[in-house]
Amino acid sequence: MDQLDAISNQIMIVAGILMYIFGSIGNILNIWVFAIWSRSPNQSQKHYRHSQTSNSSLYLLASSIANLFVIIYPLLTRIMFDGYHYRVTLNNVLIFCKLRFYVLHTFDLISLICICMATFDRYLVSSRKVRLRKLSTRRQQTKLIILFLVVLIGLHSVPVMIFFNVSSTGKCTILSTNYLYYYLCTIQIVLHGIIPIIFLSIFGLLTFKQLKRIKTRSCSRHQHHHKRKKGISSDKQLSRMLLLMSLAIILSSIPYCIEQSLNVMFIRDDRLNSSYFFFFHVISHILFYTNPVTSFYIYYISTPNFRIQVKRIIFCQKRVHYVLYYQVARVSSTHSTSVNIYSKASIERASKPTIL
């Protein structure tokens, strides 16, 4: 059994450190890309305007910021707990227990809900019914929705910070039995497991079916509606990106949900302290953290527009956009005029001059 514990420790250390490094880099790039895509049309690059056909970029931006918080703090402390057997004391219980679990459940739930909202928004935008398409909110409304979700989830997680404390064995635990059952059943199993799995499965499948119908109709009229086809292609890329992310969330949430269910079933059983359960605990938590870690790589593999934007960021490639200003002034009574031409190059890559 000691050998299995040692293997579990090494898996958490090696996998956790790699996930910490690549997850931090990936989410920083996610934030950069979605910050560009979520700008208003007047501020964003014209070349990528087709990537901003809905509010999905705003939701994905909020999700990426939340994922970065989950990786920087809760994942690092999880490596310390399960990899190096770090023991919490009364002196650091606020940092390693109360604040840690508050940050974990607040930002992970924000990330999950934003992914669900982005998937739902794609379903509305891709719908054939005008009534459903009109339900897609405007930018300002989307920002208010995100702000409301952050405040609501932050307030809901306050009891987590209150009831978490250190046990006699140096582990973080909830001392209140009543809140412990609420925490395991409602927060862990329902909010982090059942609801996201069901929601993403339903609306992900509906969005996929609607996009297949759109593709069938657009292929028969692609020559007459060439520009519209480009927009549909961009919508499909963004929807495919969300569908793959939804699939990753569903697959990674199942083991974590099973572990939390076992915690409820055998809450007073010594079998939870066995080496086999600890091994399953390590694997389920590694899979749990794959959601915030692998999001960038899922987006990068599945979406050509995302890859283009990332390459522009990494290699500092910018378009050069020339704007010519013509100023005409009358200089004499003989109706002769002089033309002063001013040219301005904004820092973008070469494109056709625009004459104002």
From TrEMBL:
Molecular function as annotated in GO: G protein-coupled receptor activity
GO cellular component annotations of the record: plasma membrane
Residue ranges crossing the lipid bilayer per the database entry: 12-37, 58-81, 101-124, 144-167, 179-208, 238-256, 276-302
Bilayer topology annotation: Multi-pass membrane protein
Name of this chain's protein: G-protein coupled receptors family 1 profile domain-containing protein
Annotated organism of origin: Adineta ricciae
Pfam short name (any one): 7tm_1
Origin superkingdom: Eukaryota
Classification via InterPro entries: GPCR_Rhodpsn, GPCR_Rhodpsn_7TM
Domain spans labelled G-protein coupled receptors family 1 profile: 26-299
Record keywords: G-protein coupled receptor, Membrane, Receptor, Transducer, Transmembrane, Transmembrane helix
UniProt subcellular location: Membrane
